[in-house]
Fold this sequence. Notes:
The structure is a single chain. The chain is α/β, with parallel strands linked by helices. 32% of the residues lie in helices and 25% in strands. The protein has helices spanning 32-42, 63-70, 86-94, 104-108, 111-120, 152-155, 178-188, 209-216, 232-240, 251-254, 260-269, and strands spanning 5-13, 16-21, 24-30, 47-51, 77-80, 99-102, 125-133, 163-167, 172-177, 192-197, 223-226, 246-249. An eight-stranded parallel barrel has the order 1-4-5-6-7-10-11-12, surrounded by seven helices.
Amino acid sequence: MLTKRIIPCLDVDQGKVVKGVNFVNLRNAGDPVELASFYNKEGADELVFLDITASSEGRETMLNVVKSVSEQVFIPLTVGGGIRSAGDVRITLESGADKVSINTAAVSNPNLIKESAEHFGNQCIVVAVDARRIDKNKDDRRRSNKKTSVTPSELAISEYTKWEVFIYGGREATGIDALKWMKYVSELGAGELLVTSMDSDGVQGGYDIQLLSEISNIVSIPVIASGGAGTLDHLCEAILDGNADAVLAASIFHFGTYRIKEAKKHMSDRGIPIRP
């Protein structure tokens, strides 16, 4: 088994790190630069910085904050939010990011994944997917009136779909089957998948193991588990049962429930190879 990674996530809104439940009811979790420095010293393997309202507000990523964060960390930094073009990818990488996370723009223009991977290398391109489980008993999904360039017949949800892709920070449904979409973007050149269960996000009841397991079985690129970490055992389950390559967490680290070194020891004790 390859070495697994622990990745704290900084969801940033208006210059502050925030954390909510199921993508709503956000509360302040601190200053991004201070937290980045803290996690770097704590021994995090990587760090993810997501400007969670950039796409929905139609603005660019806060590059000044990205630059300040990158100056505080000596571990790989992934930045996402408001990335719309290969030019945005370039500027973000030049601002200090090691990888760029693309979510909403990837749905609007899947060719952006291929173009960016070919130009910058697929190791720089992370496709983030916010997936919500479909309730077969009711149709309460927020439908999008916007057309995307994705071919509906290939990726559209069907009676067999279990999870649907959402964009704009979880505010808008796409009508796209999440599993089909993730396989598709992996073939386009994505280097990693950042898979967030909207149902589990912030609840701290555990990751969506079924979602992780099913996607890990159909793609050959690394899968980062996101949404639901509440205990150290949850981190282990995402890897041992969900076959994830890395675990992303926010609440349990931001609010002091656990330290990075505690998580690494616990995972190592469970037989999971972890970087010192």
